[in-house]
Amino acid sequence: MFGEQHGKRMGKKVKKEVEPPPKDVFDPLSIESKKAATVVLMLNSPEEEVLAKACDAIYKFASKGDENKVTLLGLGAVEPLFKLVSHEDPLVRRNATMVFGIMASNNDVRKLLRELDVTNSVIARLAPEEDIVVHEFASLCLAHMAVEYTSKVQIFEQGGLEPLIRLLSSPDPDVKKNSVECIYHLVQDFQSRAAVRELNAIPALLELLKSEYPVVQLLALKTFGVISNDRETRIILRENQGLDHLFKILETKEFNDLHVEALAVVANCLEDVDTMQLIQQTGGLKKLLSFAEMSTIPDIQKNAAKAITKAAYDPENRRILHEEEIEKCLVTLLGTDNDGAKAAASQAISAMCESLASKDAFGIQGIPQLVQLLSSENEEVKEGAAIALANLTTASPSNASSHRLLHETAVLRREALRGEEGKRGALWEEAELGRGFGEGVQ
């Protein structure tokens, strides 16, 4: 029994015949190509695997430099890639979007993308169900394209702003960076500024100020610098404790590369009396003036003076600034080594001269400093000092009677009138004769 069964199990195996493949099926073929032109041709393949690999290879090639992007453009790669951005296969769609993201950095590629009207397809890739990599490169593509006005309009009109604002809260820092950069370009247009406000983007933008990535913080600040020109936005910013965020940045030395942009936003906010009062009450105004005086960064000094100029156009703001001894800060800025800061400080003094109390305060120290600036080689500084002196001496006998001022201005007047600079000569004619010097010295 055992032998019989054993014989059956151990008997010679019969070779099973392998069925030949169907005649209409092509045998698998592996291709290794080192020519971009060959890979571009593969973008028209009906096979998803081929498409995905071709897009991946083109992405790597395009990443190597701008010349390669131009080569791909010349080979006609953009048109088939445009179709693949909306392909039903997720991997093909992802890889094609990655190529678009980096190709769009080239001017000539962007020109063709505008002609093909790709924005709608790229905006569709920002949908929540898409892969985070797709979000990254679709937003990158839009950020590149939003540099040009035509594309700004297309992105706005095709509803791109809302998904971009949603992606400000993405867990991926690259997605955040690309989205806020695109929004920054879009808000250069007033329609987008209003839409950002209506779509409640302010809280999300404020959150970006806490980012651990300086480039994200910087782009958020630059966006605020534009949108805070609108009073309605400034109100929302104040209601969302935006000023607290800005002052935290200004008070942090490690963020000194963000101080210029943060100060620009604060400057816009200071135009509103309610904001000025709030900053004064919380001690922020003293900190701001001290910050401007102590800073050694020319752009910060200049922007601080410009902020004061903007604020000083309002009578109540002038009163508050005078209470905080703004005159001392501006006189300090007149003594800096930077011509831009000197000119801006002179303009701020002119604005503050609408206040008689400020005019008297400037007369003690400001006039000698401004007289010195009349000898500056910088035309903007000279002109700013001239206008400031004209304003300081108007209807102010005590200021106008300064012997040194009269001497220096008379000399400058003669030089200006002799020369070809008729504009400044006329300015001094007005300053000395028509606006107070004659009134001040009898």
From TrEMBL:
ARM repeat residues: 159-201, 365-393
SUPFAM superfamilies the record matches: ARM repeat
Pfam family of the protein (one): Arm
Statement: the UniProt record of this protein carries the keyword Repeat: yes
InterPro entries: ARM-like (IPR011989), ARM-type_fold (IPR016024), Armadillo (IPR000225), Armadillo-Ser/Thr_Kinase (IPR052441)
Coiled coil: none
Domain of life: Eukaryota
Region of interest (Disordered), ranges: 1-26
Keyword line: Repeat
Gene3D superfamilies for this protein: Leucine-rich Repeat Variant (1.25.10.10)
Biased composition (Basic and acidic residues): 16-26
Protein name: Armadillo repeat-containing protein 3
Species classification: Eukaryota, Metazoa, Chordata, Craniata, Vertebrata
